Amino acid sequence: VQLVESGGGLVQPGGSLRLSCAASGFTEDDYVIGWIRQAPGKEREGVSCIYSFDGSTYYGDSVKGRFTISRDSAKNTVYLQMNNLKLEDTGVYYCAVTEGDFDPNVVCRALDIWGQGTLVTVSS
Strand (E) positions, the chain? Predict the structure, then answer.
């Protein structure tokens, strides 16, 4: 599986960004795909994931109510709409995927195929 992220950048607190992840090369029909972020000095965090079979989603506690994950199955693209961004949202956001039948609430923190990452900087 190949994953190509885009959409990162610099934004002020309270602003919005949308990340995109174009995926290709799946070998299974079902998979969990989403976003993991790595911030300096912090543990890796599963931000949000979506299960391809039924669209069920997972959101980390720190982003609930602010971030929305969606998927365009025709384009094999996953989006992360990030609103009301905070300073602590700064980090490298990796699109990641695990193929197979899994609960996104369980695997979102430990997806096994990653993209190259895109930097999101929230700063005034």
Answer: 2-6, 9-11, 17-24, 31-38, 45-51, 57-59, 67-72, 77-82, 91-99, 113-114, 118-122
